[in-house]
Amino acid sequence: MRAMLELKNVSHVYVSAQEASLAVEGLDLQVTPGEFVSLVGPSGCGKTTILSLLAGLLVPSRGQVLIGGEPVHGPSPRVGYMLQQDYLLPWRTIRGNVLLGPELAGRQSRETEEAVERLLHEMGLSGSAARYPHELSGGMRQRAALVRTLITDPEVLLLDEPFSALDMHIKLQLEDLVHHTLRRMRKTALLVTHDLAEAAAMSDRVVLLGSRPGRIRHIFDIPAELRALPPMQARREPGFQDIFEAIWAELEEGEEGGDA
Ligand code: ADP
Ligand code: MG
Known about the structure:
By secondary structure, this protein is an alpha/beta fold. It has two domains: about 1-30 and about 45-75 and about 205-215 and about 250-260, no CATH class; about 75-195, P-loop containing nucleotide triphosphate hydrolases (Rossmann fold). The protein has nine helices and ten strands. The protein has a six-stranded mixed sheet with strand order 6-7-8-3-9-10, sandwiched between helices. The protein has a four-stranded antiparallel sheet with strand order 2-1-4-5. β4 (about 60-65) and β5 (about 70) form a beta hairpin. The longest helix has 22 residues, at about 240-260. The radius of gyration is 19 Å and the shape is globular. The mean pLDDT is about 95. InterPro entries: AAA+_ATPase (IPR003593), ABC_transporter-like_ATP-bd (IPR003439), ABC_transporter-like_CS (IPR017871), ABC_transporter_ATP-bind (IPR050166), P-loop_NTPase (IPR027417). Keywords: ATP-binding, Nucleotide-binding, Transport. GO terms for molecular function: ATP binding; ATP hydrolysis activity. This is ABC transporter ATP-binding protein. It comes from Paenibacillus sabuli.
């Protein structure tokens, strides 16, 4: 099957007036359509850099970045981005924030409005559509940010620690909701997280990166019986602990190597 996301021998160097620093080196990765893949690794190993390359916000110093088999030449409506901070506009209602993308794209139709209402309903936000961001909890704001990302119907979702600022119990609920929604819509997703359990519970595969420079150290296939379950349920399976510990052990080993 053709890859939806592909990195071919990608390296990236950040250049400033003072210095050049190699952030990631020799990355090769293919993500198939509909797959959910997580990126984990120590802080500074290049996770956000990889998402920025895929989003077309950075041009790789070497190698090729492809979406749907085509080279990335800048930001594209095929790719949606969701961050830890929701960046909702404070002066617009939740509905107004969600409608911003379609408005900017000149796609204000009856169908779009109906799609907005449907998605808001599915995310449990119907009752909050006329409220302003500051009136909502963190979890509700992230759900609103997800609706805003999904309404433009991207094929790929890049998620940079979207749950990390939330309370544990809200975070677990949102993991289930995002997992379920992206599967149902057959989106391809790349999630950055520092939470290994979250990565193991949500993903088909987990990519572990090492640092200085960022390189792929290991790719873990999550067992099929865990992949078939919603994240919250997967966490309770006996096999979950095994895969969690395997990722943990590999991460620990890399950290020791890095400091030596
Ligand atoms: P992560 O998201 O895994 O924490 P990043 O992709 O943000 O890592 O950063 C990878 C490396 O690149 C780090 O060493 C970081 O300091 C460096 N870096 C990130 N952004 C820039 C930038 N705009 N200019 C220079 N160096 C950067
Ligand atoms: Mg980051």
